[in-house]
Amino acid sequence: MEEDQLALLVQTLKSQIGITSEKITQLQTVSNTLLKPEDTEAVTDTKTEPSNKSLTRELEKRRLQLIMDVQKHDYVGEKLMVLINQSEELLAYLKLFLVEPRVASSEENSNYISSKVNATAECLKSHIQKTQADQTRIAMKLSELNDKMTYLLDTTITGFNNKATTGTKE
């Protein structure tokens, strides 16, 4: 689910980068075409007619406004390029994030499983050793009981045999 969201984010970033690049190109085109051909004619006309001061002032204002607009567009274009570069870096990090966690989680899973297997093996070894020691003790106890039972049985049989040979009844 999270990977789907990250993939969607990556696609959105790619489309936004494309849109931003197109807008920068449009802004550069607009800034290059801000000075209209009729403005250049008016400027050349004012040079030939110095008496028309108001037209000169108006053209100077327009020229200053156009210069400020071009500077503004250049500034915005530079900032948009910085944003595009940052978006590309973010996109690269996201791609790296989508690829790396799978590798890391596989290694982590392998280490986790290995540690659990080793711990279980150590626990089993301990229990096997304890079971073997208990089996040895039980075998010794059974041997002792067997020896005692054999002794008791032998003495009982010997006692019956002695009584039978002597003819005594109990």
UniProtKB/TrEMBL annotation:
Organism whose genome encodes this protein: Scheffersomyces spartinae
Protein name: Uncharacterized protein
